[in-house]
């Protein structure tokens, strides 16, 4: 039995972020009503009373939980308390308020970093809690696991139709290009773009280029989110990925071609590679009737077009941390050694 989104009032928490923005774009194509919020300035989702007041006064019928503190390995490793605290509070406040206000359906977005460091590849949903986590992003991962468990507990105790999806590495419009908090696609895109503008002869990518990673265009994820809202109602979280992985070297070549950089790529093998492979097992999602549709080349073209059109007004997500706030404009930074090691170990 499918859940009907028609005429439902939907709140996308985190709607000003990359994933939330894509969910809004996708839901605008449905015959539903979308709640627009004023972002963090209007409601700090870490504050229970603010979340409860917002939910009680706006009464959304469907909630997509795409808000959270997000960052690459460097940020996670440097600020583990913030990643754990913020994400736990955001999830607990929204999920509990959703139960209290009778939300009919809630989709929680987690991350592939919930899985053990040594999980089998491709990683099935059942690998959750079968081994130790990657220590550098443990706080973030534990918070995301708690989000899954909250959805399951409210489903079991209160009969709430709360579901969870675990996306792989994402890229697309609204991405964060900050040199210290960005993920692989944003870091590489920016690096190749800046090398092209500077007419550099080479771009240095940290590591050997051999680790394999999976990348999904964020609008594909949004499409998967709507599909799950409609067709999925179970406690088990569902992986959402592209269904295939490529080496970092192949990915870098794709970005090089997309950007039009004519120099060469040099791999700095003195830098660590991270885990050799990270691919989600997406058979459950496929069995539900959904697969990603945008080929990587097309996704990257859309990504770069958006990057160029947003030049100069890209997001500065360093937020409260002085260490991460010292750059006023990410594109004016002269740091040529972007955090590619961190990127290879990024959280999905
Ligand atoms: P973004 O940083 O782009 O978006 C997160 C959003 O949450 C921002 O709008 C942010 O607002 C908001 N937010 C964070 N803290 C608060 C707060 N205390 N109060 C109000 N709003 C807050 O991240 P993404 O869109 O990339 O990620 C969203 C979710 O998607 C993540 O939680 C993660 O689980 C999932 N995900 C992301 C992946 C990726 O590759 N990016 C991969 C897999 C999963 P502000 O701008 O003010 O900080």
Distinctive features:
348 residues; UDP-galactose 4-epimerase, domain 1; 13 strands; 38% helix; globular; binds NADPH dihydro-nicotinamide-adenine-dinucleotide phosphate
What does this structure look like?
There is one protein chain. With 348 residues, the chain is α/β, with parallel strands linked by helices. It folds into 2 domains: 9-169 and 215-240, 3-Layer(aba) Sandwich (Rossmann fold); 173-214 and 243-278 and 294-344, UDP-galactose 4-epimerase, domain 1 (Alpha-Beta Complex). Helices cover 38% and strands 14% of the residues. The protein contains 11 helices and 13 strands. It has a 6-stranded parallel sheet, with helices on both faces. The longest helix has 21 residues, at 80-100. The protein is globular and about 60 Å long. Residues 316-348 have low confidence and may be disordered. The structure holds NADPH dihydro-nicotinamide-adenine-dinucleotide phosphate.
Concise structural overview:
This protein has 348 residues and is of the alpha/beta class. Helix content is 38%, strand content 14%. It contains eleven helices and 13 strands.
| Total number of helices | 11
CATH fold title of the largest domain: Rossmann fold
Number of DSSP E strands: 13
The total number of structural domains is 2
Determine and state the CATH class of the largest domain: Alpha Beta
Radius of gyration: 19 Å
What is the topology?
Elements (H helix, E strand, L loop, with lengths): L8 E5 L4 H10 L5 E3 L12 H11 L3 E4 L7 H6 L1 H21 L4 E5 L28 H21 L3 E6 L1 E3 L12 H14 L4 E5 L5 E2 L1 E3 H14 L6 E3 L5 E2 H12 L4 E5 L8 E2 L4 H5 L8 H14 L30 H5 L4
Parallel strand pairs: 1-2, 1-3, 3-4, 4-5, 5-10, 6-9, 7-12, 8-13
Antiparallel strand pairs: 8-11
The structure holds NADPH dihydro-nicotinamide-adenine-dinucleotide phosphate.
NADPH dihydro-nicotinamide-adenine-dinucleotide phosphate binds next to helix 1, helix 4 and strand 6.
């Amino acid at each position: 039995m499918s859940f009907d989104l028609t005429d439902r009032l939907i709140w996308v928490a985190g709607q000003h972020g990359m994933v939330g923005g894509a969910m809004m774009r996708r839901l605008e194509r449905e015959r539903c009503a979308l709640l627009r919020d004023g972002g963090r300035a209007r409601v700090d989702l870490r504050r229970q009373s603010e979340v409860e007041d917002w939910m009680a006064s706006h009464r959304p019928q469907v909630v997509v939980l795409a808000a959270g503190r997000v960052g690459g390995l460097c940020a996670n490793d440097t600020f583990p308390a913030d990643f754990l605290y913020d994400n736990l509070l955001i999830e607990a406040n929204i999920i509990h308020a959703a139960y209290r206000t009778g939300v009919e359906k809630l989709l929680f977005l987690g991350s592939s970093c919930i899985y053990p460091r040594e999980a089998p590849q491709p990683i099935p949903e059942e690998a959750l809690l079968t081994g130790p986590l990657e220590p550098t992003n443990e706080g973030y991962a534990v918070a995301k696991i708690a989000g899954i468990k909250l959805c399951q507990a409210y489903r079991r105790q209160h009969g709430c139709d709360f579901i969870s999806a675990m996306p792989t590495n994402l890229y697309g419009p609204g991405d964060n290009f900050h040199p210290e908090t960005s993920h692989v696609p944003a870091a590489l895109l920016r690096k190749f773009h800046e090398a092209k503008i500077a007419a550099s002869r080479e771009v240095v990518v940290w590591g050997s280029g051999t680790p394999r990673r999976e990348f999904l265009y964020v609008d594909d994820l949004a499409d998967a989110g709507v599909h799950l809202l409609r067709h999925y109602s179970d406690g088990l979280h569902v992986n959402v990925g592209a269904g295939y992985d490529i080496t970092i070297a192949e990915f870098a070549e794709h970005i090089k071609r997309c950007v039009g950089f004519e120099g060469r790529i040099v791999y700095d093998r003195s830098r660590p590679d991270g885990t050799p492979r990270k691919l989600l097992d997406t058979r459950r999602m496929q069995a539900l009737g959904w697969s990603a549709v945008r080929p990587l080349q097309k996704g990257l073209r859309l990504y770069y077009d958006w990057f160029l059109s947003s030049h100069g007004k890209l997001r500065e997500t360093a937020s409260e941390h002085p260490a991460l706030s010292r750059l006023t404009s990410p594109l004016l930074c002269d740091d040529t050694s972007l955090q590619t090691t961190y990127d290879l170990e990024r959280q999905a």
